[in-house]
Design goal:
There is one protein chain. With about 280 residues, the chain is an alpha/beta fold. It has a single domain (about 10-265), classed as NADP-dependent oxidoreductase domain (TIM Barrel). It has ten helices and ten strands. The protein has helices at about 30-40, 55-65, 90-100, 120-130, 145-150, 175-185, 205-210, 215-225, 240-245, 255-265, and strands spanning about 5, 10-15, 15-20, 45-50, 75-80, 105-110, 135-140, 160-165, 190, 230. Helix 4 links the parallel strand 6 (about 105-110) and strand 7. The longest helix has 13 residues, at about 30-40. It starts with a strand and ends in a 13-residue tail after the last helix.
Length: about 280
Amino acid sequence: MKTIQLSSGQSIPVLGLGTWRMGEAIAQRQQEIAALQQGLDLGMNLIDTAEMYGEGGAETVIAEVIAQRRESVFLVSKVYPHNASRRGAIAACERSLQRLKTDYLDLYLLHWRGSIPLSETLEAFQTLKQAGKIRDYGVSNFDVADMEEANTLPGGEAIATNQVLYNLQRRGIEWNLLPWCQQHQIPVMAYSPVEQGRLLQNRTLKAIAQEKGVTAAQVAIAWLLHQENVIVIPKASNVTHVKENRAALDLKLSPDDLQALDRAFPPPVKPVALEML
Ligand code: NAP
């Protein structure tokens, strides 16, 4: 699997496995475990989760998946903004580690900005890193002003990534956030790469996919993988979807394909506030 190097020197796979909506229903559990296992078997060795997903349920699903192969997985979790205080973030991380049945996270993110001062969260993240509980830390749903502010705070320079909404239909970050992150060598993790399935109904995308003999999801994911310094984390509970998403890594889009996609999904022509799901 192709990787991107974080500023700490750690390597992160460019294509991983999202887990939002997992761990919410017992009836789905075996299917979710099978899908994540399939993804790892195919080399998608990055799992993205959060204490929010299934209120800890997704982390308990993941515990079963990684039990026999923790070292080969790049594991990401996130802290709720209301837990992200100096002490609260440390306690939240400990709870995530317990649910995940592991003793470290590869990356720990602030899920979105809340009212707790960012300086406190960064202090907690540094403490967790020094204690070996997390190998890297970062943020999510941060726009340029938030990134600039974080960058001025102690520990802000070590922010490893910013996880944001980015897909063909949501290209606003190309105006200034993506260039800002690229200049600061901070990879962007693109969440909801198929817009939670809604993008797949787009007529133009379907037509482009059909012409190439692939699926709309594969074109959408391959397009993101063609962007510089971008990591993509589609969520799939269905094994067939996982296989398709993995195959998107090998899908080459030609300059003509990229132009056709630009016509169908134009890049921003003015600043756009960061969108969130
Ligand atoms: P997504 O990955 O864009 O879409 C997931 C949906 O698409 C699921 O319904 C899935 O169906 C379907 N799907 C996946 N692959 C498919 C394929 N090849 N063909 C057809 N359908 C396919 O949306 P997301 O879950 O919102 O985003 C991905 C991950 O990003 C999340 O799971 C989470 O880890 C992260 N995220 C982070 C934030 C944040 O605030 N930081 C916000 C949103 C998401 P099945 O499940 O049935 O396979």
